[in-house]
């Protein structure tokens, strides 16, 4: 048996058991086929820190564009050439800096040695002492750059980061493991364990995944023509198609996040932020030419794909890895400008049933709607209900380019914007990075790249056609409550259908989904799609399952929340399950060597977000006892099992008031519950509030401002309302007694 790290496992090309000649154990000989990881250049930020260097690079940039911007020369080629030239110059400067620094450090070392000998002969020589001190200081200063790079590996980083939420603390609590390596992958006939075989298997999978299919364009056009789609207004078209300005480019550059992996060209966000004054004009020219139908720079077509394993899935299956595209930031600046414009249009064009990626929309509204639907059918038990939670196969990667390109033309979005989309979504290429090695190039002919600012917007733009088609089909029966229809909710590809009398029309629902999927590339995965029923007997559930070809379950997971046929089961299936996970983590972290403040920071960073998501989407806790139980476990972790030495009130107070900032879970829950009360007060989301108060005789203000709940006892019969109103009544005396009508 050989014990080896994951990094070696895939490098073994041969293994032999040798003869026992020196002991009673047979030696094992391994032959390693070691390959160096594919080198990928990335700009060293230290090269663009000093004002002198920055000014020199700016002058070089201005000179390059002045010399090369000539009539007949394509701007796109000039831009890609500039990146190659400045990259070469930066590499050269790094080598020169290193040589100069090493040479100077060596000279200083020699000089220090000479002066120390001189001091031994004359210890009281003040001038030599001062010179020696200055030389040592200079040497320390020159070595500071190298020290800065290594800070994260030494003790100083502990003192800087151990007491606050961040990457350092996240690494500390993560299970000790090596760099995530893929050591084996299941193929058609066997399991592959060598790097080159694993890379080839991923290459074949993604090559097949992104291969375009023959599209019936007349059929797509006919399908879109039937939808009676709302055309874009003149004002909207003008805003989408107007010339891109330097202000838009600089605003997008400002929003670029630092410390993110750059694209294949190696230029990070810091490069564009530092040189935006000299680059914005060049980018503006290129972008506006693309709007007029010219090609995009060739470097904008390529991407490096890194893969992330999906949670709770078999890591041996290639399909269980999510591809993330690392794109060049100049491309992301362009698509970021387009995305910001497109977002403003979509906010008015996309129905309220979609809540993803648009300003002012909340994912929690989807959960809230489903909870209210379940509550309604709990009281109207004579009606049958099915919730169809859709799982689409590789939804973003399968979206057909031809579908959304025709959709843009159908709503008459405008020549410039449409031209930009056409140029972006043609001739894309990518390489997959596995275990530090790079695959052969893949031709991409469909899908929206996860990592591009436009991708989620184009996806929800396309999926909106499905929603419109379902909403307008009178034969598809959803929930009809107070003259309003509730048929489905969506967050990107997480779509849930609300079906009344499912045994009668489930097949038509599935037909609608498959009809859209065939044209758009939104393929229904029946194995993972689930149905949750309400008011349907067990025999009828079995008939429904057989008819639909989709499993009927007792609970289903939607947007991270476990939904059940009775809201009374939500606490057990969500809060109790989540706290078991947290409790297990707290025990696992108990022996980590971090300070009291570090442990509080860990609670803020890792425990609070998990519970806060539940607080915001499921404000259903009635008893304060649950918070007491949680607080005991948290304090036990914070104080390492010892008796607390500081009052809980002081610990949970804010740092600005002398507290320690330990999260008070009850206050976070109550704040989340009050956000629902705010919706009752503002009355903005009319359709959702009508559903939530479908059984009430008065308006919302009567219950939160005028104490009509005491008269109408039915207000508390709603599982969620009863919990929220309890929180409101606690805080109501501290606010206005009555809400102005």
TrEMBL record:
Residues 289-563 form the Reverse transcriptase domain. Pfam families: RVT_1. This is Reverse transcriptase domain-containing protein. CDD domains: RT_nLTR_like. Transmembrane segments: none annotated. Keywords: Coiled coil. The keyword Transit peptide does not apply. The lineage of its organism: Eukaryota, Metazoa, Chordata, Craniata, Vertebrata. Residues 98-152 form a coiled coil. PANTHER family: REVERSE TRANSCRIPTASE DOMAIN-CONTAINING PROTEIN-RELATED.
């Amino acid at each position: 048996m050989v014990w080896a790290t994951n990094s070696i496992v895939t490098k073994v090309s041969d293994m032999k058991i040798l003869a026992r000649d020196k002991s009673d154990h047979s030696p094992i000989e391994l032959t390693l086929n070691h390959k160096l990881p594919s080198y990928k250049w990335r700009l060293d930020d230290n090269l663009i820190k000093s004002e002198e260097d920055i000014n020199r690079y700016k002058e070089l940039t201005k000179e390059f564009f002045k010399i090369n911007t000539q009539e007949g020369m394509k701007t796109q080629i000039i831009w890609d050439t500039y990146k190659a030239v400045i990259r070469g110059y930066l590499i050269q400067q790094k080598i020169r800096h290193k040589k100069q620094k090493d040479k100077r450090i060596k000279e200083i070392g020699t000089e220090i040695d000479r002066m120390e000998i001189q001091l031994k002969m004359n210890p009281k020589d003040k001038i030599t002492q001062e010179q020696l001190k200055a030389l040592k200081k200079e040497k320390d200063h020159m070595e500071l750059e190298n020290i800065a790079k290594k800070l994260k590996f030494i003790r100083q980083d502990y003192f800087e980061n151990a007491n606050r939420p961040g990457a350092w603390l996240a690494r500390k609590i993560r299970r000790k493991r090596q760099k995530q390596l893929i050591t084996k992958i299941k193929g058609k006939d066997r399991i592959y364990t060598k790097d080159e075989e694993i890379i080839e298997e991923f290459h074949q999978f993604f090559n097949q995944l992104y291969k375009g299919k023959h599209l019936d364009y007349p059929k797509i056009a006919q399908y879109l023509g039937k939808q009676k789609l709302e055309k874009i207004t003149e004002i909207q078209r003008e805003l989408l198609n107007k010339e891109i300005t330097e202000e838009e480019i600089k605003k997008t550059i400002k929003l670029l996040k630092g410390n993110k992996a750059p694209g294949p060209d190696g230029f990070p966000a810091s490069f564009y932020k530092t040189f935006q004054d000299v680059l914005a004009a060049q980018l503006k020219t290129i972008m506006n030419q693309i709007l007029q139908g010219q090609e995009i720079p060739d470097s904008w077509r390529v991407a490096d794909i890194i893969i992330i394993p999906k949670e709770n899935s078999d890591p041996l299956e290639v399909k269980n890895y999510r591809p993330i595209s690392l794109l060049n930031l100049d491309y992301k600046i362009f698509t970021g400008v387009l995305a910001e414009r497109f977002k403003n249009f979509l906010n008015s064009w996309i129905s309220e049933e979609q809540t993803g990626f648009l300003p002012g929309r909340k994912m929690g509204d989807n959960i809230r709607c489903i909870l209210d639907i379940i509550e309604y059918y709990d009281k109207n038990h004579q009606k049958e209900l099915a919730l169809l939670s859709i799982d689409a196969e590789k939804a973003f990667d399968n979206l057909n380019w031809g579908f959304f390109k025709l959709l843009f033309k159908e709503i008459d979005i405008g020549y410039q914007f449409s031209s930009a989309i056409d140029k972006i979504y043609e001739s894309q290429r990518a390489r997959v990075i596995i275990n530090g090695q790079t695959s052969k190039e893949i031709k991409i002919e469909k899908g929206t790249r996860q990592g591009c600012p436009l991708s989620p917007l184009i996806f929800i733009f396309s999926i909106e056609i499905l929603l419109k088609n379902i909403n307008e089909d009178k034969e598809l029966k959803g929930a009809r409550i107070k003259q309003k229809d509730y048929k489905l909710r969506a967050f990107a590809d997480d779509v849930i259908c609300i079906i009344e009398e499912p045994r009668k029309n489930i097949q038509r629902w599935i037909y609608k989904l498959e009809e859209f999927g065939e044209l758009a590339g939104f393929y229904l995965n029946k194995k993972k799609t689930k149905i949750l029923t309400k008011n349907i007997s067990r025999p009828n559930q079995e008939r429904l399952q057989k008819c639909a070809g989709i499993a009927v379950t007792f609970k289903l997971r939607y947007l991270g929340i476990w939904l059940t046929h009775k809201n009374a089961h939500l606490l057990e299936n969500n809060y109790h399950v989540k706290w078991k996970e947290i409790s297990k983590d707290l025990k696992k972290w108990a022996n980590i060597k971090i300070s009291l403040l570090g442990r509080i920071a860990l609670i803020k960073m890792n425990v609070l977000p998990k519970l806060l998501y539940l607080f915001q989407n499921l404000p259903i806790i009635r008893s304060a006892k649950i918070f007491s139980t949680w607080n005991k476990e948290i304090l036990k972790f914070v104080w390492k099992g010892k008796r607390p030495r500081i009052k809980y009130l002081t610990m949970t107070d804010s740092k600005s008031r002398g507290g320690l900032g330990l999260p008070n879970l009850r206050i976070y829950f109550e704040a989340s519950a009050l956000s629902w009360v705010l919706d009752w007060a503002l009355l903005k989301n009319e359709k959702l509030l009508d559903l939530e108060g479908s059984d009430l005789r008065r308006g919302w203000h009567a219950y939160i401002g005028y104490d009509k709940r005491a008269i109408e006892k039915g207000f508390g019969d709603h599982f969620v309302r009863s919990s929220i109103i309890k929180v409101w009544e606690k805080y109501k005396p501290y606010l206005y007694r009555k809400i102005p009508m």
